[in-house]
User: What shape does this take?
Amino acid sequence: MTFKKRIIKKITEEEKRYETESLMKEKRSEEYEVLEEVFDKSTLMTIYDFFNRNIIADIYGVVSSGKEARIYWGKDPKGKELAIKIYLTISGEFKKGKLPYMLGDPRFANIKKDTRSLVFAWAQKEFKNLELAREANVRVPKPIEVQKNVLILEFIGENGVPAPSLKEIPPENPLEVYYQLIEYLERLYQKVELVHGDISEYNVMMWQGKPYIFDMAQAVLTAHPMADIFLRRDIENLNRYFRRLKVDVLSFEEIYKRVVGNV
Ligand SMILES: Nc1ncnc2c1ncn2[C@@H]1O[C@H](COP(=O)(O)OP(=O)(O)O)[C@@H](O)[C@H]1O
Ligand SMILES: [Mg+2]
Assistant: This one.
């Protein structure tokens, strides 16, 4: 049975309130258990809604399973590849670690503080940050839709294989990529007042010779009280990574001045 069919089947079961009985009858494959863990009823309904709205036509296997989110490979009705990022709503760790990035952001001043609401706001925040990044002409996966804990993104890569991160494959043109990333930080800061806050070799993918930054939920507006600390850390992470690739890196001060501009 395809993944999509499983999801629809599961929803149908839920709606008929036969869930427990049918689960007991269901032969448990590994895939089904993964489905169980990530797709609680609300998540299933959200995905179902994306099917009905013709935003997703199909959903295939998992591309990445992190502590906080799973990324699935999917396609839209035209066959365009999608990355479907599903934030887990059952992770108890979530609240504590994320709050500092959320509080102090005027966009999220009035959110409820229960874990589910925070996860939903977190997904919204990533969506908005990606939109801002595009506005600043920074290469990121195009955000397509967000609803509750599910984010639909342009797929960076091909045939379900994500483009390699800098961690996986160091770039062939490190100097060029280094300067491009500094330029990205500058555009984010000066054009849309955003600080990424988690720049590292894990959150940059190389695709068609160009760096794409992603995983932007934690990015904060420059008005955030911690923004400066996050920016300094980003700059240090960049230099640390590229120094190892034998790039003759700029001094911290020089990058900082470039990014922040004349303020
Ligand atoms: N838009 C995308 N296109 C292709 N692959 C993606 C996309 N977004 C994420 N991935 C894959 O999933 C992995 C984890 O994504 P990320 O957004 O960093 O989630 P996490 O919060 O779990 O770190 C990435 O390293 C990449 O391999
Ligand atoms: Mg990541």
